[in-house]
Amino acid sequence: MPDPRLTLSQHAEMLALIETLADHAREAILPWFRNPDLGAANKACNGFDPVTQADRAAEQIIRATLLQHRPQDGILGEEFGPKASESGLTWIIDPIDGTRGFLAGTPCWGVLIALADGDGPFLGVIDQPYISERFLGGLGQAWVAGPQGRKPLATRGTVELGDAILFTTFPEIGTSAEQAAFTRVSDSARLTRYGMDCYAYALLAAGHIDLVIEAGLNPYDIAAPIAVIEAAGGIVTDWQGGPVGASGQVLAAANPVLHAKALALLQG
């Protein structure tokens, strides 16, 4: 639920601000997309966890805008250090979720921005700059705006796993135990697809798919999708049915009935 300290006028302020932040991120990122001069540094000690000029530029402009308009709020971003909150509100930022896809030239990456209080994220944006598509949820709003105009967001009513479309980013999800748990759900689903990063959560909120199951996520990977999906009528928990937390496990479902069935299989 939104922080009770927010007034209706502050609702309007936050809605306008989160769109401004997404607009600024678009402007910072697009010159780098499919640009042969784009380079990537590897943040991982093992494996490949890229960061680019576009990631850093987008987070920097978001932070600068927040410091100008909401200096009392906290900031938690992927690329730079956290800023403590003095207001009880924190902005959670992933400037490019899906940097591997960004490097490969696919359009399934996105900008994730969320606003959270002590109970978790209550306003979020999943923005895809290249196709000009924005999914917003929270504070009484749930809509997508893009090439086909603006439409309300609403999750699907699928209640049978055998009818469900399931997404995850990596086929090799998590640990061996997490992989086995995911496979139990995947084997029961109608269709399983991979590699969509944050765009899978947007598709769930828009009513095109039914489940997203992932492991190893950080708060900035999932805060905005939680707000958008919940505003659209869906449910997002960890694999134990509680709030998404330090485990990094995520089960996002179109409705509580389907969520319960997927949860039972994840738990074995």
From TrEMBL:
<comment type="similarity">
    <text>Belongs to the inositol monophosphatase superfamily.</text>
</comment>
<dbReference type="GO" id="GO:0007165">
    <property type="term" value="P:signal transduction"/>
</dbReference>
<dbReference type="GO" id="GO:0004401">
    <property type="term" value="F:histidinol-phosphatase activity"/>
</dbReference>
<feature type="binding site">
    <location>
        <position position="221"/>
    </location>
    <ligand>
        <name>Mg(2+)</name>
    </ligand>
</feature>
<dbReference type="GO" id="GO:0046872">
    <property type="term" value="F:metal ion binding"/>
</dbReference>
<dbReference type="GO" id="GO:0008934">
    <property type="term" value="F:inositol monophosphate 1-phosphatase activity"/>
</dbReference>
<feature type="binding site">
    <location>
        <position position="96"/>
    </location>
    <ligand>
        <name>Mg(2+)</name>
    </ligand>
</feature>
<keyword id="KW-0479">Metal-binding</keyword>
<dbReference type="Pfam" id="PF00459">
    <property type="entry name" value="Inositol_P"/>
</dbReference>
<dbReference type="InterPro" id="IPR011809">
    <property type="entry name" value="His_9_proposed"/>
</dbReference>
<dbReference type="GO" id="GO:0000105">
    <property type="term" value="P:L-histidine biosynthetic process"/>
</dbReference>
<dbReference type="InterPro" id="IPR000760">
    <property type="entry name" value="Inositol_monophosphatase-like"/>
</dbReference>
<dbReference type="GO" id="GO:0006020">
    <property type="term" value="P:inositol metabolic process"/>
</dbReference>
<protein>
    <recommendedName>
        <fullName>Histidinol-phosphatase</fullName>
        <ecNumber>3.1.3.15</ecNumber>
    </recommendedName>
</protein>
<dbReference type="GO" id="GO:0046854">
    <property type="term" value="P:phosphatidylinositol phosphate biosynthetic process"/>
</dbReference>
<feature type="binding site">
    <location>
        <position position="97"/>
    </location>
    <ligand>
        <name>Mg(2+)</name>
    </ligand>
</feature>
<feature type="binding site">
    <location>
        <position position="94"/>
    </location>
    <ligand>
        <name>Mg(2+)</name>
    </ligand>
</feature>
<keyword id="KW-0460">Magnesium</keyword>
<dbReference type="InterPro" id="IPR020550">
    <property type="entry name" value="Inositol_monophosphatase_CS"/>
</dbReference>
<keyword id="KW-0378">Hydrolase</keyword>
<feature type="binding site">
    <location>
        <position position="78"/>
    </location>
    <ligand>
        <name>Mg(2+)</name>
    </ligand>
</feature>
